[in-house]
Specification:
With 433 residues, this protein is of the alpha/beta class. It has 14 helices and 17 strands. The protein has two domains: 137 residues, 3-Layer(aba) Sandwich (Rossmann fold), CATH 3.40.50; 207 residues, 3-Layer(aba) Sandwich (Rossmann fold).
């Protein structure tokens, strides 16, 4: 049955292509949404960019006819901009008709009462969905690009083997996978002997074989793995055939530290890459500090401070750790860049680390991945439980989306780290709070 979807502003600011994501159904955009989009268009971030894209797409559709009367979409449905929000006083006397959300809700209420076909309000605003539900109006989140967080791919599994198979694995340095085995490329398996559970091994699945780890015990820039998940992470970070690495885990599990240590090892010691490029999304936790004084580097310093903390830790054995960091930056070995300035670049033969990637949308992840040039390796790190972006959650953020969409590719590897190694206090906080 054909449906009518009414879109909230945050859906379009999250993904401008949402205009075309409803197949052959009709799409209605309240005029209040156009006003909100207009208010965001001057922002110099992803939301501003998405607002401008929405405006351009609507302007293109305007060439097909009057938007207030409806214009055809390629999938078969129609899109129209609705002016009426006069149902406000009729649906709930306590609602402020000056608020954009309530005006959008009024449009949804009007069509819900007057149309025979199903009418659904689509919004990423939890409170608006609650208001709609109270008034009996069907409402749902925008599900395109969402993943099932309950079944999120961890990159690690256990596998029971016979004594003969375990001996074969150690003797030959590999073990062919059984017929019908459905492992992902570069997935890690903890091999356990069925007869003797204490007899175990760590392995990586690749091209129908289980292979022992080759880099898990290595030391990089003075850093060694402290648990099996960190060994798996080093295996991915040090393998130059794996071009995209995703490391997910709670605070203190060592994601960023391991990535930086391997990056410095590959760039400074082994000269395999020309530069270590580090970037983070500029998303504030709590109240934003507003504009910061100084040049680009000085403005970035507060956002990049966690990176400097890790670099200082890695340089702790040097007489002057800050001098080491400043020298690497001065020589161009390390570059810290805001994601704002990544768009349009082509980045060949560099080791890229994108920290706090859980605050990126799927579109931002795509923008960054498509900047990767020949010979470049890119590492994404993040904690899916610490998302500060207003329109993202554990199921819709770009990092989770990247893991799920690329887990079947041979040049991609993923590990979920679970054990905190920062300190006993940090581990308790992550586990109990």
């Amino acid at each position: 049955m054909k449906k009518t979807y009414i879109l909230d502003t945050n859906v379009l600011l999250f993904n401008p292509e949402a205009l075309f994501a409803f197949e052959d159904n009709d799409v209605i955009i309240p005029l209040a949404v156009i006003e909100e989009v207009d208010n965001q268009k001057k922002r110099q971030d992803e939301l501003g960019r998405n607002a401008r894209v929405v405006s351009k797409l609507l302007d293109t559709l305007r060439l097909k006819g009057r938007l207030s009367e409806g214009v055809p979409l390629n999938q078969g449905g129609k899109l129209r901009v609705e002016l009426n929000h006069q149902e406000m006083g009729k649906i709930a006397s306590g609602l402020d008709n000056q608020k954009y959300d309530n005006r959008i809700l009024a449009v949804a209420a009007f069509f819900f009462k007057t149309m025979d076909e199903p009418v659904i309000l689509v919004t990423k605003d939890l409170n608006l969905r609650i208001k709609a539900d109270v008034m009996g109006i069907p409402a749902e989140d925008f599900h395109k690009d969402k993943i099932n967080f309950q079944e999120f791919y961890s990159g690690i599994a256990e596998l029971q083997l016979s004594t003969e198979e375990m001996n074969l694995f150690f003797r030959n340095g590999k073990l062919p996978a059984k017929e019908g085995f459905k492992g992902k490329p570069n997935q890690f398996y903890i091999l356990k002997n069925e007869s003797n559970p204490s007899h175990s091994a760590l392995s990586r699945y690749f091209q129908h074989y289980l292979w022992p780890l080759t880099n898990g015990e290595s030391t990089n820039w003075g850093i060694r793995a402290l648990n099996k998940e960190q060994k798996f992470a080093l295996e991915l970070l040090l393998n130059d055939h794996i071009k995209v690495v995703t490391l997910v885990g709670n605070s203190g599990t060592g994601k960023t530290l391991l990535a930086l240590a391997v990056g410095l090892e590959k760039v400074v010691e082994q000269n395999l890459y020309t530069r270590l490029l580090i970037t983070r999304p500029v998303v504030p936790v709590g109240q934003d500090l507003g504009y910061l004084p100084g040049n680009k580097e000085e403005k970035l310093r507060p956002w990049m401070q966690p990176i400097f903390d890790n670099l200082e830790f890695l340089s702790a054995n040097a007489p002057e750790p800050f001098e080491v960091i400043n020298d690497l930056k001065y020589r161009g070995v390390i570059e810290l860049e805001a994601l704002t300035y990544i768009r349009g670049r082509s980045i060949p033969k560099q080791f890229i680390i994108c920290d706090e990637a859980q605050n990126l949308s799927p579109h931002m992840i795509k923008t960054l991945v498509t900047r990767v040039g020949k010979g470049t390796k890119i590492v994404f790190t993040g904690d899916l439980e610490q998302i500060d972006h207003p329109y993202l959650d554990a199921s819709s953020n770009g990092l989770a989306y990247l893991v799920e969409r690329m887990k079947d590719e041979e040049i991609v590897g993923h590990v979920t780290l679970v054990r905190g190694e920062r300190s006993s206090v940090a581990e308790l906080g992550s586990r109990l709070l």
